[in-house]
Amino acid sequence: MSALAPLEVRGLTKHFARVHAVDDVSFELRPGTVTALVGESGSGKSTVARLLARLHDPSSGSVLFEGDDVARVRRRRDVLRYRSQVQLIFQDPFDSLNPVKTVRHHIERPLRIHKIVPSRQVEERVHELLRTVGLVPPHEIAAKYPHELSGGQRQRVALARVLAVEPKVILADEPTSMLDVSIRIGILNLMTRLKQEHDIAFLFVTHGLASARYIADDVLVMYAGQIVESGPIEEVLAAPLHPYTRLLLAAVPDPAKRLQADHIEERKGLAGAAVDPADGCRFVSRCPLAIDVCSRVTPALVEARPHQSARCHVTAPERTL
Amino acid sequence: MTALMEAPVETRTSAPALLELHGLTVEYGRARAVDGVDLTVHEGEILGLAGESGCGKTTIANAVMRILRPPGRISGGSVVFRGEDLVGKSDEEMRQFRWRNVSMVFQSAMNALNPVMRVGDQFVDAMRAHERIDRKRALAQAEELLELVGIDRDRIRAYPHQLSGGMRQRVIIAIALALNPELIVLDEPTTALDVVVQREIMQQVEALKRDFGFAVLFITHDVSLLLEFADRIAIMYAGEVVESASAQKLGADPQHPYTQGLLQSFPPLSGPLERLTGIPGSPPDLRNPPSGCRFHPRCPHCKPENGSLYLRQTTERPVLRQIAQGHEVACHLVEERRA
Predict the structure, then answer these.
(1) Which residues of B touch A42 (CB under 8 A)?
(2) How far is B269 from chain A (nearest CA, A)?
């Protein structure tokens, strides 16, 4: 926890009309660390990534990049600097690449726009980046068009393009969910290597707990716009505090499970976005542990074990003096 | 809400065959997407069909339903349903056959609902296309079906946009059940959904299967899901079935190096974390498949120093052979080890 956080999020909130997509979210991303942000569709996890990428303006709260509040940055030069230092990778690598441009074009562009290397070194750097992400031989790959590449190769091009600007932070929004399982591991291994060798701070948005465990150091579990649990991933998965984290864990396919035939609790309420949320815990209608207070008082994120916090009256009660 | 009854795991390989593919071959121009596949779905079982994108698993589903898009065509083999070959049937015969005998839920089927029609009317349309039934009775049945898949009866008046992705997917499954088919083909039915919804839908399919007794051909790239929910699993690679076995057997004792690679592509949720390698390389171009075993360019056991084995791997196509009761593998290495 000693390394300076390049990106720190404080009380980040985004409302789309009555929908509280992101509510009072705080965390920090540290260099050389992968932080997984997990939750189901509609939990607000992608909105967090988009807020950090400045694709949306927050309703309130702040995003501090090396100490400066990004939401308030308006000068073109500063915006450009932030955009190059904090990069976003999308789910579908086909959508994010221009079908009529070669791989070379995609990687050259950021090098030239952000003037990373002198013109005469551009080609050499393109090849070097392609080698870094495991696309060899680079001169052949560079001449290809997106449709000539597999999904995994396209995601590697997306990573090479992002690395071109030497970012400090990479926001990866479900980067492997469109890929075949056999290809996913390769991308996850690549992200692990990049985090180690380039000291990048990763935010890894995913709904896959197993892939989160494979590469992440810390985890943030989101439900209906709020972080309901956070901590070191091994500890959270070994002993989850929040009932929602437990539900997510139980839902992961597990061949051993069929022998026990343990069906998980059927949900009663509807998951997802919080529309005009009332006071109380947002998980209350689906929670097997709910007690009286849960539907009246919104639980706070409480550090119930060292470094492990949860938003739950039952498993992480606030200490009353 | 349907009661989710716990039942012992059954393997019904002894049940009579419902759907049999014999040497099924499908071509798209010069590419053989499916190449000589033999596959049997027995009554009341869940057969999982798994493999990477482009391995031909969806093409098999489309061939069974006879909804291949040109230039795709069945160029060889047969698709036998209850002893009747479907390949020679006319379009009208096939139209009758679909839905009544077999229904299919497509990948991202939740987008298959008509956005400007109420849910109830979509049931009525499907039912009346296949049987004489008055609107009122069809709607009453639709309400029951919705309840079966865990959706409130009054949602019959909802429009698709008023339902979540998971609910739309359940509606599609309910419509697929409407004519009480004997076989339901599910093509990646939960891939676009998150794990909690995915599990709920799979548990519902399992419960409905037990109540109605239909068989399921379940197509997915997620073997971990099949290990938990399927009775038997067939693994496809580059247009061929390379291994098939009961889910328990395949999970515990995979024989084909490709199956082993697939299973090793899932990081574990508990226990020690090791660095995984997945499967290096990518699937071959089916217009020009590798000689010999199609997996050999990616196979960790295919090395020139292996002499005669290497020669067989690179020149001779392995055939699917039974190595134990109900366990078939197409691999030279497995064959030589057993010899």
Answers:
(1) 164
(2) 5
- B229 in contact with A at a CB cutoff of 8 Å? yes
Rounded distance between C-alpha atoms, residue B195 and residue A244, angstroms? 12
- Pairwise CB contact (< 8 Å): A255 & B247: yes
Per the structure block, which two tokens stand in for B223?
A: 């073997």
Cβ atoms of B218 and B57 closer than 8 Å? no
Distance, CA of A43 to CA of A101 (rounded, Å) = 35
Phi-psi region of A296 (alpha: psi -120 to 50; beta: other; left: phi over 0): alpha
Angle formed by the axes of helices B165-177 and B135-148, nearest 10°? 120
Size of interface A-B (CB pairs under 8 A): 120
- Rounded to whole angstroms, how far apart are CA atoms B14 and B7? 18
Model confidence over A99-121: pLDDT tens digits?
Answer: 899 999 999 999 998 888 999 99
Helix (H, G, I), strand (E, B) or coil at A36: strand
CA B180, B183, B189, B194: dihedral to nearest 10 degrees? 80
Q: Which two tokens stand for residue A63?
A: 């995003």
On whether any CB of chain A is under 8 Å from the CB of B197, the answer is yes
What rounded mean pLDDT belongs to chain A?
Answer: 87
Q: Is B56 on the interface with A (CB under 8 A)?
A: no
Domain boundaries, chain B: 16-101+181-277, 112-178
Token pair listed for B190: 């939960």
**B57/B283 Cα distance (integer angstroms):** 13
- CA B266 – CA B225 distance, rounded (Å): 11
pLDDT digits (tens, 9 = 90+) for B311-338: 999 999 999 999 999 999 999 999 998 8
A127 close to B (CB below 8 A): no
Of A8 and B132, which is predicted with more confidence? A8
CATH of domain B16-101+181-277: 3.40.50.300
Using the beta-carbon criterion (under 8 Å), do A253 and B273 form an inter-chain contact?
no
Contact B26/B78 with Cβ under 8 angstroms? no
Ordered domains of chain A (ranges, CATH): 7-241 (3.40.50.300)
Nearest CA distance, B47 vs chain A (angstrom):
15
Interface residue of B2, B259, B282, B287 to substitute, partner A, most A CBs within 10 Å? B282
Mean pLDDT over B37-61 rounds to 93
C-alpha to C-alpha distance for A138 and A134, rounded to whole angstroms:
9
